[in-house]
Fold each of these.
Amino acid sequence: MKWLGSTGLNSAWVANVAQARPLVTVIGSLLLVAACGRGSSAPAPASPEAAVRGFMNAVKAQSLAGMGSLWGSNRGPANSYMAREELEQRLTVIRTYLAHEQYELLEPQADAMPAADRRVVQVRLTRNGCTPVVPFTMVRYGAGWLVAEIDLAAAGNPQRRCTAPPRTPPPPAPAPRSGNSPIGLGR
């Protein structure tokens, strides 16, 4: 056996490693695909609000991967079962409608809990001076929650300026009482 330098490796061992390298590369690649591939093994957020916060932060960061891991159904995150091209198209539209400068979660309402496995979280977006309130329907997945539905119509068209709420006319001035004239206006 021939020893290679001060490493203490012999030539037979180096030859065996060289022959095994393609197998190691294939196994390593498969492990990498399994770890980074479709569908995350990360648990869904523990509360509906945490799922919405994560989703909105992914929207702000323009992370389709982050959005895809928090949007789905009771089957799991959409990135685990939806075709990649379709998923990217849908998430791009959602990201466009939900683009925001900031957001805030509103207090839950009594009707926000239609069933034990579904919740509605109201989100107020701030975008170009507009503040639409967008309902997110959440669904339970395992021990956590995912965004299942988003009312994009409530977000308004992101390419248009928001319309000002209709102005209510001021109340009519009270009629002067008889015999009294306003100050400064003599009879």
Amino acid sequence: MTSFVSQQNSSKPSSWGERWVAPQQPPSSMQDGNSCPTEQWPPANQEYCDQQHRPAPQGQNGNPHQSGQGQQYRPAPQGQNGNPHQSGQGQQYRPAPQGQGQQGSSDEAGGNGLYPRFFGIKAHGTKAAIYFTPDTTKSGYQTVAIEAAEMLIPAEKKYNWNQKTRLQLTRSEILDVIAVMLGLSPGCEFGNHKGANNAVKSFTMKHQGKSVFISVSESGRPIKAVPVPVMEAIQIGHMILTVYIQNYPGLSPDVVVPTLARAINGRAAPQQS
């Protein structure tokens, strides 16, 4: 018959044939709530208890992206001084600085609450390049900015981003752009975007099956035209869609896409007299 140690005796069993019974109450030093919980008393050893109930190190200021040495996680640079137009890559990613909120941006700031400041999708052509990046208007509307630059040095695939044309999609334009990028609409055209020195900016998009042909113009500057491959156009459309629904809490792509498709089809249908 298995023997039991008295509950008044807190020593461990002397052999495998004995069963050790924990005391009914832990020592008073364990009842202050700062040590190992009473239901786990007594621990096999105090070091184990401390390890079980010690929170994992979070780095400086509780930031989970910092190591114990205070090094902050940050992807590889995308170009000099964080310029997303200097790496030549199609997709750029750079987190916003820690602790800085992303407020309504100016026409050059970029970024919004969903994407990091220098996130964007770029497409290159033989004569120009185009760049789509999430942005926020001065009134706080979440939108996407289009930047276009002409080829500067073809052998180096270098574009003149210092003389780029930049515009933000307005509330009345963004759904049409999404529809074209996702293949729901054959095309769209918008103008009357005002720039510096009374410059007028405009853009056109035409879905051509295998690509979406995008042309961006600004008065006094050459037209920048880029054929965007259809698979890249779909990715751009998805990105713009995720930005758009931020303006309407509770709205989902499952609602936007079908209603947008019906609206496009209804607009294209001949009017009955």
Amino acid sequence: MNSSTIIPAPPSLHERDPIGRLPAAAAATLRAIREADHDLGAVALSLAEQYEQLRRDRVDANVSIEVQRRGLVGRDVDVEKHARLVASMEHERDAISAGMARVNERLAALNARRSQALLRRIEQWLKSLPATAILALHADDVAPKHKGSIADAVDHARAEIAKLVDDLALTGTAPLPAAEAKAIARRQVFEMAARGAPAVGALVASGAPAIWPRAAQTAPITGVAATGGAVTGFASPAWQDTPAVLAWLFRESMIEALEDEIDAIADDSRALPAADRASRRRKIEADLLAAERREESFIRLAEASGLNLSRRAGADPRAVLGLDSDLPATTGPFGR
């Protein structure tokens, strides 16, 4: 072997399984979710095998029924007796179909209780954390109070979570107040007007033409070469900056026209100033994580009393594992 050859080190235990990075309590929770999902998966596999066997039995039953029906043609048989036989076979076939439906319902209910999507979400999130991240437990866990049954408490927490998720989405899509939009439009027109002023120094000095502003633009180019191959590229021509020149000539008229357009579509009833967006988002995200922690607390109370409640596939890993709120939230395809 060449002495310069570098053999990559095998992945560490933490790289192979991020559960090794977790505090003991969080690791126990993740392990329990994995084991429960594995057990449900084994039952689901058994039901799937039952379903497949029933499907084959129904195919065989249909074949046998068809053979009996064809056997009646051209034969001197007791028609009524033969009809009773076929009816009995059809009844058995229908019983098989009903059995398939029951197994399919059980399989669907079982799969609904599984945590595959949540496990993927948690494990992807753990793997995305920097190696230097400290995975500490959340320090403020207090058993929340609830009225009614634990299942009702979970439903209430999930309704609160759904509302907060909607609020978070609305925060990201809320329009600017009309006054703020107008201020931005005015600033943009002033900037364009500054660019649109022609350079007249050479004209004053020597009578040379005034130099009008130009703006470089990038345009894609496609074509076919003489040899038959495709040609692609980009061109960057410099066109006269007409909007800037118009802003220089008619600045106030342009601002007035833009303000009229803003008034026509602005909706201050749901507007949110740009300066408030980040703080509002942080507040909703904190409330959302707190609600998810309450949901997880109720689920654990239910488990302790022998009631199994499925966790949501989109649950925050920090809430499920009881980890510190300062850890980054899930992002990308596994985020909200």
